[in-house]
Amino acid sequence: MARGCLQGVKFLMFAFNLLFWLGGCGILGVGIWLAATQGNFATLSSSFPSLSAANLLIVTGTFVMAIGFVGCIGAIKENKCLLLTIDRYAQRDLKKGLHLYGTPGNVGLTNAWSIIQTDFRCCGVSNYTDWFEVYNATRVPDSCCLEFSEGCGLHAPGTWWKAPCYETVKMWLQENLLAVGIFGLCTALIQILGLTFAMTMYCQVVKADTYCA
Question: Could you report the per-residue pLDDT of 16-31, keeping only the tens digit for each?
């Protein structure tokens, strides 16, 4: 009973942090919209033009998003039941994606799997037999081979990587979680700043064209 209550609390913590993160997204979106449409109209101080409602919302939204993201990661790591559910869904979805490997219009997916299997020295989602359902035969992509050569995926299983890609990549992410998280947040921040700058420049150009006309 106590264990069930603890799991429920952890799930509520995850839901709360997710809502917190979504709220941050909303605040950030309003800040970007305000910066793009209102310009310096919403400046709070004439002495400090950068101290505007738009900039405050952007900073606040980014901060709230970061806190929510960290909270979600912490809740997921503590909630084994939720983590197991996510694991099962992710593996099932990835296995469906294997059927698109090598098909027209899925070059990105094909290249991604080839790079992952080559760099992480793994094969398939759970194991190399995942590819048997894709090919309807005892074969794997050539990127699964211990020593790459054309058509090596048709050879015996002893010449293929045995490690499951899902667990291998997940272990790598767990070991480098902080670095990956910081990189992701920095990338998102750069994209947001770029979007804000582009929208602001666009609005300034439109205003200038209207003035000149």
Answer: 667 777 777 777 777 7
